[in-house]
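We close this part of the discussion by returning to an individual protein. Part of our work consisted of pairing the sequence of a single chain with a tokenised description of its backbone. What the numbers capture is local backbone geometry rather than side-chain detail. The amino acid sequence and the backbone structure tokens for this protein are reproduced below.
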Amino acid sequence: MVWVKKCCCCSLKGGALAVAVVFLVLSVLGACGGAVGLGSVTQYDSLGQQSKTQNTEENAALSAMKKISTAGIVFYIITMITSILIFIPACMPDQRAQKWKLLLLPFVIWMSIYIVISIILVIITLVTANLKGSVGAIILSIIIFVLIIFLGVYCCVMIISYYQYLRDYTPDLGKAGYAAGTQVTIQSGK
């Protein structure tokens, strides 16, 4: 049984392709941004090492920024790979795509992990927020995390529904038999 039969105004296959394209583009942009950030931190660190004027707090901050940038790049690369895997079954006819439906699951698993990480980050933001500071920035970051969580759940539902559609697809019935959920029988005119 498929959770949803359509993705907004298009089919599940179209929705899966849209999800794949959006996450692929966003992950490429995120990886490029992370690489630029990592390069900037590394360049600043090498300049600081030459002048020997950095204190231990600066070294710790630079080290933390390098780790965060590297983790972000790895995160975006994994997102790219899982998004690319969606294209394989989504670009095939349903009968052939049925054999490749398991390639949809890495995206669902990865997006579930991402949703949990986002929830943890919202909790950390709420717990560690200095309310005397910029309340607007804290509220904005929480709104962004909530939107990311909502979109992640929506995209997971779309990909799971497409997986269920491929799992239950029978070429003999065609789309009319699948949509009705009943078996189509052809009676002879005798």
